[in-house]
Automatic annotation (TrEMBL):
The keyword Glycoprotein does not apply. NCBIfam families: beta_helix_1. Residues 1-20 form the signal peptide. The lineage of its organism: Bacteria, Pseudomonadati, Pseudomonadota, Alphaproteobacteria, Sphingomonadales. InterPro entries: Beta_helix (IPR039448), PbH1 (IPR006626), Pectin_lyas_fold (IPR012334), Pectin_lyase_fold/virulence (IPR011050), SO_2930-like_dom (IPR022442). This is Right handed beta helix domain-containing protein. Residues 67-214 form the Right handed beta helix domain. Keywords: Signal. It comes from the Bacteria. Residues 361-405 are annotated as: Disordered. It comes from Novosphingobium ginsenosidimutans.
Amino acid sequence: MPATLIAVATALALAAPAHAKVIPVAAGENAQARLQEALILAEPGDVVELGAGRFTLTDGLSLDVTGVTVRGAGMDATVLDFTGQKGAGEGLLVTSDEVTLRDFAVENTKGDGIKSKGADNIVYYRVRVTWTGGPKETNGAYGIYPVSSTGVLVDGCKVSGASDAGIYVGQSKAITVRYNYVEQSVAGIEIENSRDALVTGNLVTRNTGGILVFDLPNLPVMGGGNVVIRDNLVVGNDTPNFAPKGNIVAGVRRGTGVMVMANDGVMVGRNQFDGNPTTSIMVVSYPLAFADARYNPAPRNVLIGGNRFGRDGYDPQLPGAATLLTAFGGSLPPVLWDGLGDPPKAVDLVNGKALSLNLPKQGAGAEQAKPAPFRLPDSVPMPPAPGASQAVEPRAPAALDLRIQ
């Protein structure tokens, strides 16, 4: 056997444990116990294979075994139905590394749809999370919810009805969110207190806000930034805000395309905007009081350029909206800035400037905001090549050309 073939065979043997197996689970009677048992008994390398059909579940599921794939027959063929869920938790909780979730749906959870916590190299591929009753305050907060992870890929998923964010990635790094369809959620996609994130090729529509990049105080992981938002279709985000009162996203204005808040090093480029009644892009500081000395509430190093705009800003949910509309001939400029922190470095401007709303300083620590010299984000994770989805996995961050083209 040629040496190259021997090397390939050896690598494959090392990659797949000898005991790796497929554990089939069919829909039907006693699905709750049979599915949870499969997730408990699975070993590294195993595939828990969900058959086509509707799994009627009354409690949340959990997986804490490394290297397991949970695979259904398709996001419309295999449905985990939590309509009768008795608890208030998530539908599926993953707390182990190297897990792939693919080709199934989760419906009507009382809490979050799917949550992964501390799960490095987690893959969500062609997963659907839906609240079938439409936008409601009582829906779960997050649809797809990876948090505290290194290596996150959310690819080809569909989410609707989340009362906070359809796809949320928090306190994580090395993130790719691509080719997803998110609708009728308060925030379509949210990147919070995270670094090295690429958000690309997504369709976000009929949400309150399309794509949000936040940094918040008083969290274990601080200093979010180095985020690229590019080549997304951000259209028709006009759903009234239905977040529970007191939630931070309850303040997101209906019709916000992209919002960058208190983040450092964000590029918004080559996206297409249309039908977002408040604005295409909003760059703002954190508006509430805080006592976290580590926190900078102002946006810094935000680069905007190469985007295409349709009819946005025609019904802004802002103080003094009528006066603003009169001044600008019926619609606001595509980039709004609250006048705090660094002004965005932007190509997509009216008369070379963003529209500054000149808001007063807000928050007990607003005076702590310190502008920093402008720099481009230094790296973001590169996704697998198109067509590689059968063996998809997160990749380590690599250099990326961020020049506006």
